[in-house]
Amino acid sequence: MKEPIWITGAGIVSAIGLDKRETLDSLLHGRTGIGPMRHLQSEHRELPVGEVRLSDEELRARLGIAPGMPTIRTALLGMLALEEALEEARLTADELLRTAFVSGTTVGGMDQSERYYPDFLANDTRNAYIALHDCGASTELIADRFGRFGFVATPSTACSSALNAIILGADLIRSGAFDRVVAGGSECLTKFHLNGFNALMILDREACRPFDATRVGLNLGEGAAYVVLERASTARSRGVVASATLDGCGNACDAFHQTASSPGGEGALRAMREALEDAGLAPEQVDYVNAHGTGTPNNDASESAALKRLFGDRVPPVSSTKSFTGHTTSASGAIETVICLLALRHQFLPVNLNWREAMPEGIRPVVESRPQREIRHVLCNSFGFGGNDSSLLLSKREEA
Amino acid sequence: MKKIYIRAAEQISLQQPLSEAWMTDPVSVEGPYAPAADPDFRTWLTPAESRRLGKILKRALVTALSIVRKTGVEHPDAICVGTGLGCMVNTEHLLETLCRDGESMFSPTHFMQSTHNTVASLLAIHTKSHGHNLTCSHKDLSFDLALFDAWMQFRLGRIRTALVGGYDELTPSYYTLLRRIGYLGAEGEVPGSETTVTMLLTDDSKDALCELAGLRILYRPTPEELRQGLEHLLGEAGITCGELSAVITGVNGSRTNDAFYEAFTSQLLPGVPTLRYRHLFGTGYTASAFAPYVAAHCLERGFIPEALPYGSVPLREGAPRTLLLVNQRDGKQYSLQLLRALCGN
């Protein structure tokens, strides 16, 4: 019997709030964070986005970072989320030495690189930002603010980076390398990936409508989230409690196309199955699925097919909370994991905003937040370019 | 605990591609920046693939295909990739477009091949591998973390084979940027270069090059923690410092970089011969992938090439049995690997 992994802390920052309390309030009141662009300096003002409401300057001020100190938005968002997670888990600087930090990102320091690239090429004025460009740099900026972690790593599997960070974290615990891991991810909006998604013609000019027959694409968002994973015995010995456990992980590859998902959702199905098998649960025990549900025609059709293959005609309540946060790309897996934790703790179903018309062969997502039965086990899906499909099984902790 | 083996290892670098000719006949490398020497891609890839795929993808794919051909392992259970900067050529192209032409000219094809996991995805598509697939992008430890991920999957009993690789491409203009920040191009440093190393790990010793006997990664260790980390690594494998045939370091001619290795070897491994490889393969984010590549071939062939030893401790008589590999960045993050020759070799 595997020793349970407790989740003893969580932090979240996105367009619908700067912490768990604000996030919960937005989810319960159906308040989306998607709206007109305010901070991102893009020409595409017509594209709605899910921006974290604070500007870089406001984030710096809140975190007490001096104005002249070079930093990147991905790191600022990550610091805010990590602070909340560490606080809830009551981790001291001394305990960080025996804790690993795993943070997923793809964008890293691209927000400053795209701003200063001509300077990078021409002169030495912005060298600090060259050094902050790569993915690992943002992870270390976030980690080092809080002390000395014993291990750091940066998974980068495009939009499933943060979920794969959590899986890597679980593997570190199960393999005996660490008793405690803080895992998640952080990603800010950039012109770089906004234009990339735009060139692929998968951005909606209106609010996204995941799983709706009229869906045409996604809205991009940004944010960060982390969870503190801890071997149950270690958490107990520290006298901390957990309201949820991480029971199953599935990492699979669609192995179909660089950016498109297979029609049958092969990778998605394998990831969900693996997570269930890992947790020793049957499909009918799943009480809620937080779908990847980007709102693109391709993803939602493929994910619907996978859900139907797994659950048959008894698909549990499913929703995409990207209708609240936008698609927070490399951070999404962790942001949606924390949303699942809130659903387990407060016993509600996060609704799927903007859904009106069922798509042919599609699933019918949750529109009513009151659950029909107790929410004990939830699946959280996160898929990325390259067919990097992953899924987690999270459970409400039963008092022993 | 089941043992883990390196079954095959291929490279494309400054040396002759897809070859171990460097062991007896190394190409001497010069200049601050040197691109890799490519094989004839047309013998491996279709014309469409040759045209469509960026260099980093072609190189990764060809080394993987070569391993599949040599070993017959067509569908590895896991694919674990490390890359410092991902598909940099495409990323740079998009950055240039953005700064020169604004936001109206963005190319979807370049974007599709610009994420860090593009390589692992391509390898999965070509080997039809639906299993565990992860890319780590963490500075100079990117490859080491990918190897560590594969190691954990074996230890957790989930896989029997894994394709593990370290990949980076470098353009002359990005080389200039990395020199600006002092990451590359220090005085006396070996060339900044590109990396393609792919290896196949298995849980079966048959036809293997060597055993991967231990692996440890440390972040911001104190000297005492580093000593303990090394002690645990050797202890778990049941060997002592005195039994190490040699230690392979990442010295590259840069004084600041080399000082960390000098401190490590002189304080923790006095009397152990030291070997280097970056003067043959260049330096860069995933250059550490050349270390197990080099070590595996030395252990399999039972000799240390003349070009590798440096320092004052002479090599011991006989075939190398156990090699310790150390990789570090700015003394901030360390990776230690232990590779062992197969019994009876």
The CATH superfamily label of the largest domain in chain A reads: Thiolase/Chalcone synthase
Kindly, what is the distance between the CA atoms of the first and last residues of chain B, rounded to a whole number of angstroms?
A: 22 Å
Give the C-alpha Rg of chain A: 20 Å
Strand content of chain A: 15-25%
Say what the CATH topology of the largest domain in chain B is.
Answer: Peroxisomal Thiolase, Chain A, domain 1
Ranges of chain B where pLDDT stays below 50 over 5 or more residues in a row are: none
Distance between the termini of chain A: 15 Å
* Distinct helical segment count of chain B: 11
> How many discrete structural domains of chain A?
2
Tell me what you see in this structure.
The complex is a heterodimer of chains A (about 400) and B (about 350). Chain A has two domains: about 230 residues, 3-Layer(aba) Sandwich (Peroxisomal Thiolase, Chain A, domain 1); about 150 residues, Peroxisomal Thiolase, Chain A, domain 1. Chain A is built from 14 helices and ten strands. A ten-stranded mixed beta sheet of chain A has the order 3-2-4-5-1-6-10-9-7-8, sandwiched between helices. In chain A, helix 8 crosses helix 14 and helix 11 crosses helix 12. The longest helix of chain A is centred in the N-terminal third of the chain and has 17 residues. Chain A is globular. The two termini of chain A are about 15 Å apart. The longest helix of chain B is centred in the first third of the chain and has 17 residues. An eleven-stranded mixed beta sheet of chain B has the order 4-3-5-7-1-8-13-12-9-10-11, sandwiched between helices. In chain B, helix 9 links the parallel strand 9 and strand 10. With about 350 residues, chain B is of the alpha/beta class. Chain B has eleven helices and 13 strands. In chain B, helix 2 packs parallel to helix 5. At the A-B interface, helix 5, helix 6, helix 7, strand 3 and helix 8 of A face helix 3, helix 4, helix 5, strand 4 and helix 6 of B.
